[in-house]
Amino acid sequence: MTRPSGDLRVVVLGSGTCVPSLRRSACSVYMETGDARMLFDLGPGTMRRLLENGTEIFEITHIFLSHFHPDHSGELVPFLFATKYPDISRRKTPLTLAGGRGTIAFLDGLFRVYGSWMDLPEALFRVIEFDTAGPDGRVFESFRVDTAPAAHNPESIAFRVTSAGGRSAVYSGDTDYSENLVRLSHLADLLICEAALPDAMKVEKHLTPSLAGEIARRASAKRLMLTHFYPPCDAADIRGQCRKTFSGPLLLAEDLMAVVW
């Protein structure tokens, strides 16, 4: 079904991390607007969650990688392999893979390992690199993507999707506190933000619930969804910690949670 071009539907495919969990798959968010079917990261478990969402891999039009860590990119090779075998004719539209600077080199490294097993025809596959030194963006047929560097890895970027009707969602990927993310998230309808560990367990290059809330508050985001939970988060008062800094509508991500507007 083609969603009206002004609508935006978001489904959490993976709300967890690299730690094996029956409850949470690794990082991935699905978005759709108009004819576009987008994946933001695809950690292990993504393709199964897609099927549970009623979506086949051949319907995906865009994959956006926030960075190359395995819990965010680990299912890229199986995705491309399953696209090609056993029946590549099932893909009717080209697939766009996009990420920060270094995406082409990352993909080339995978090709050197797996060769023709994951190499798709040029007519069905293209790669885009966004700037990692500052803001960047690209207008597609039914949506726009804006990016900003994230405070995690050299290739790390956050994404903002805006539908033809002006609806917007920001995906932080992994990041520490970032003024870039504050600016990118300004007045966003939904900020999907990592909160990897409880406040008392803050580590470098990741956010906690109160820091994610501070970003959302400063950005005047209309709604905040926390995600990318390590197991300690499931035993902590994540909502209460976020409420120290953010008083707006708040969601704690679970796999297959959907938001439509």
Task: Describe the overall structure.
The chain is an alpha/beta fold and 261 residues long. 21% of the residues lie in helices and 26% in strands. The protein has helices at 46-52, 70-73, 76-84, 103-114, 179-184, 209-219, 238-242, and strands spanning 9-14, 28-33, 36-40, 62-64, 95-100, 125-130, 136-139, 143-149, 157-163, 168-171, 190-194, 224-227, 250-252, 258-260. Strands 6-5-4-3-2-1-14 form a 7-stranded mixed sheet. A 7-stranded mixed sheet has the order 7-8-9-10-11-12-13. The radius of gyration is 17 Å and the shape is globular. The two termini are 16 Å apart. The relative contact order is 0.16. The mean pLDDT is 96.
Give descriptors for this structure.
Metallo-beta-lactamase, Chain A, alpha/beta, 21% helix
Whole-number average pLDDT? 96
Q: Give, in spatial order, the strands making up the sheet with the most strands.
A: 6-5-4-3-2-1-14
For CATH, the homologous superfamily is named as Ribonuclease Z/Hydroxyacylglutathione hydrolase-like
CA radius of gyration is 17 Å
SS elements, strand count:
14
**What is the annotated CATH architecture?**
4-Layer Sandwich
Intertermini distance: 16 Å
Strand content: 25-35%
Apparent shape = globular
Into which percent range does the helicity of residues fall?
10-25%
Topology:
Blueprint: E1 9-14, E2 28-33, E3 36-40, H1 46-52, E4 62-64, H2 70-73, H3 76-84, E5 95-100, H4 103-114, E6 125-130, E7 136-139, E8 143-149, E9 157-163, E10 168-171, H5 179-184, E11 190-194, H6 209-219, E12 224-227, H7 238-242, E13 250-252, E14 258-260
Parallel strand pairs: 3-4, 4-5, 5-6, 10-11, 11-12, 12-13
Antiparallel strand pairs: 1-2, 1-14, 2-3, 7-8, 8-9, 9-10
